[in-house]
Structure formats: C-alpha cells, structure tokens
Amino acid sequence: MDLNSETNDSVSVGNIGNEITQVIQLSLYVMVSFVGSLGNLLVCIAIYLQKKRKPNEFFILNLALTDLGASIFSIPLDLTELLSGKFLLGSTMCHVVYPIQTVLMGTSVLTLLCLSTERHRAIVSPLKPKIQAKTAFVMITATWLVSVAAVAPYASILRLEGEQCLEKWPRDIYVKTFTMSVFLLLYFVPLLAITGNYVLVMQKLNCEMTRLKHLFSGRNHSLCKHVQKRADQNIRVVKVFVTAVVVFAICLLPNHVLWLWHDFGDGKNFKYFNEVVVFCHIMVYINSAINPFIFGKLRLNHCCNGSDKKRKRSESSLISRLSSKAPKFYLRVREMSDVMSRPSFIKRVQQQWQVEEGEAVV
Q: How much is the pLDDT for 223?
C-alpha cells in the first residue's frame, strides 16, 4: 500500500472541498450584495418621494439605510478579505471596518424596537399623543448613539499585525464581557421588548375586533364592515413588522451563538470555525436582502389604500352634492364616517341605543 498516494489523494480531496466552499461563499456574497443594494435603494427612493411621511416610515427608512450600508460596505470588504486572505485597508481602517459592521447590526434591531414602540403607542394607547416626526428623529439618533457606545470598546482594542486585523484584549474576561454585552444589549433585550410590545398590540386588536363585532352585530352591517376593514388593516401592518422581527432574529442568532461558543466554550478549537464564521456573516447579510421584500409588501398595501382613498374622495364629493338637498342625511353620514377617528362616538352610540331600547320597553 502506497501511503504517499493516499496522502496526496486526501489533500486533493480537501482542496476540492475548499474550492467548492469558496465558490459557494463568493456566489452568496455577490447575490446578497446585489439584491440587498437594489432592494433597499428602491425602498429609500419610494419613501423619499413621498410628500408626507408617517413616523413608522422614518423608522423603515433608517432600517433600509442600515441594510443598504451592509450591502454596499460590509459585504464588499468581507469579500475582499476572503479573496486576498489578508486585511488590505491599513491600521486606521482596522479600527473602523469591523466595528461599523456591528454598529449596523445593532442599529437595525434598535430600529425594529422603535417600530414596535410606535405601533404600541398608536394601538394600545390611542388617546396619548402620537409619535411625531421630531420624536422619530430623536429615537433614530438614539439608536445610532447606543450602537456606537456599545461597540466603542471593540474599536479600541483592534490592532493591525502583519496582514491581519486582530483583537488584542488585555484579559480574557474583557472579551467575554464584551461578547455577552453585545448579545444582551443589541439582540436579546431588544427582541424581548419587541415581543412584549407586539403581544400587547395583538391582544388589543383582538379585543377591539371582538368588542366592535358585538357592538354592531345586527345593527348596521355597512358600519361593521368599515370598522372590521380598518382593524384588519392594522393587523396586516403589525404582521409585516412581526415578520421583519422574526427574520432578523433567525438570521442573526447563528452569529451570536457562534461567538458565545467561541468565547465561553471551545469554539476556538473547532477545525472549521473560520468557514462557519463566513456563513454566519452571510446569514446576517441575508437579513438585509430580505427586508426590502417584507416592507415592499407594506408599500404595496399602502398604494392600494391610496387608490381606495381616491375612490372615497369621489364618494365624498357625491355626498357633498347630496348634502345640499338633504342636510340631515349628510350630517348622519359624516357622523358615521368619523367612527374610527372619534373613539368617544362608539360609546355615545351605544348609550343612545340603550336609551332607545328603554323607551321602547316603557
């Protein structure tokens, strides 16, 4: 038996396996970068071209910008380092490139937290003042500042040694503290708060649907349909945001688990750790490419609602023409059309029906 031939065969098989892995990695990087760049750019343009923007659209714009940054900044740099096998941007950029990638990831999850907070405020506490554009800008600024503050220690310990940008922590406890802090502050705690917000939102919407159906059952079918349509629209919007959160959690979980395993376990001794790191990074970037499809559906629904509003404006012009001949009818229709914008009207209608029923019994 020729041992040398067996060794050569195993080496050749290993090289072929490495080449296939690199081809898969490069293909995924290029595809995700192209789709993510194009999709997020279209989302940014669509929101920018609007004359009037809602607070949640500012948050979506910020999320699209972070995803766009990951697609046009982080992915090409990772791709360059993967192809060359070394860090080519110098010592100054060594303190910038890797931290910015983490900042973009942290800003994304904090922006999703802002979206859930805005929906919670609008649906669970409708009587409180809504989040205005200025408040949205303050919240967006806070997402960036918190992310930068959380990642600042990481930027300070990076050093360029030879052709590699490496972490140089004074003690092992520091790297463990940083890894756990990033996991808690920029992943676990925000997702926990987001989950709580959307659970309360869905409970509120379900209760409102049940209460309104009971209130309008057998009384006014057209008004009940209008109320249900508005509630269904809120549920669809919330489902879009929940989908974005679930996709984010799934795509970023492998990356966090990997580094926790590396710093708190024996992941550093795993033979294929570097290959797993690359695929975990690709999972993070896939989230940036998927978000435009998720929020693009929301934009499509918004356009459809815009066509409905045009139809409603034409109907309102017809009502205004009828109002000149039937003022009482016009006032009654106006009062019914304001039922969703005036929460106190529902209670007044319910009280009026109770009085009418009491008179009928007498």
A: 58
Residue 50 has pLDDT above 80, yes or no: yes
pTM > 0.70: yes or no? yes
Local structure of 164: helix, strand or coil: strand
Q: Quick check: helix, strand or coil at residue 156?
A: helix
The token pair at 281 is 């990074």
Residues 78, 29 contacting (CB under 8 angstroms): yes
C-alpha 172/C-alpha 264 separation (Å) is 10
pLDDT at residue 303, as a whole number: 44
DSSP 16-82: HHHHHHHHHHHHHHHHHHHHHHHHHHHHHHHHHT-SS--HHHHHHHHHHHHHHHIIIIIHHHHHHHH
Q: Report DSSP state, residue 339.
A: T
Structure tokens at 139: 């919240």
**Residue 87 in 3-state DSSP?**
coil
Q: Which helix (H) or strand (E) holds 249?
A: helix 221-264
Rounded Cα distance between 189 and 110, Å, is 10
Angle ∠(278,282,288) on CA atoms, nearest 5 = 150
Q: Is 167 helix (H, G, I), strand (E, B) or coil?
A: strand
- How many contiguous H segments (helices) and E segments (strands) does the chain have? 12, 2
Dist CA 176 CA 134 (whole Å): 38
